[in-house]
Amino acid sequence: MTFNPIMFARHSNANSAVINALQANNSTVVMDFSGSEASVFLSSILGHDLTKLTASGLGLKGTLDGDFNSDFSYAVYYFSETAFRFVLPYSASLQLQSLINEQQLRFDIDYVIRTDLTSFTLSGENAFDTLVDAFKLTPGLRLSDAQLCYGAQSGEVFITAIDNKDEQHFVLIAKAPELQKWQSYMQTQGFAVMQNQAA
After folding, report:
1. CA 75, 73, 106 angle in degrees (round to 5)?
2. For residues 36 and 81, what is the distance between their CA atoms, to the nearest angstrom?
3. pTM
4. What is the mean pLDDT of the chain?
């Protein structure tokens, strides 16, 4: 029997939140981005240094307005030279869609807004260990750069590790019924449901 570990990561310099918390991301959009020139678009138009993306699942934080903490910031995850996934606020998704639409005549690129997917954020002292146990992940990667992020697919759930203002957060993305199951599980593990903060 072959064992294929699902590698997972956390940030070595990020702090854990004091409270084990779970927060629904009602305004988060998942956009799958692809094309033979997807990498060229990301480097030349969005200014990303893709040399850091050496393995599937690695990602970069980016911004459309120069502020990594604004509603126009995003994370983009590398699957292959021609396939990426953006996770971003709704307002940033509108601006990015417009930019991609403008550039489609120049680049062989396309995107799909994954309206079938929803997400929630997990944070707190127990978040990493709970995810490793629940999803049978292998905790082998440490991210020292706060601008790097990491995503792994475990079953029906895409799980990401991201540094949010020097605090370690994990975003779980899946279809609503599957995500609801995991939200209920996390609540039984002691994660308090937090309400979305007003903008």
Report:
1. 80
2. 8
3. 0.92
4. 92
Tokens linked to 150: 């990491």
Burial grade of 154 (CB within 10 A; 0-12, 13-18, 19 or more): middle
60 torsion bin: left (phi>0), alpha (psi -120 to 50), beta (else): beta
Structure tokens at 59: 């990602």
Beta bridge mates, 185: none
Taking the C-alpha atoms of residue 59 and residue 9, their distance in angstroms, rounded to an integer, is 11
* CA angle centred on 63, ends 59 and 68, rounded to 5°: 90
Q: For residue 134, what are the contacts with CB-CB under 8 A and spacing of at least 6?
A: 182, 185, 189
Q: How far is CA 12 from CA 96, 151, 199, in A?
A: 30, 16, 29
Task: Retrieve residue 163's tokens.
Answer: 């540094």
Q: What's the pLDDT tens digit per position in 51-108?
A: 888 889 999 999 998 888 888 899 999 999 999 999 999 999 999 999 999 999 999 9
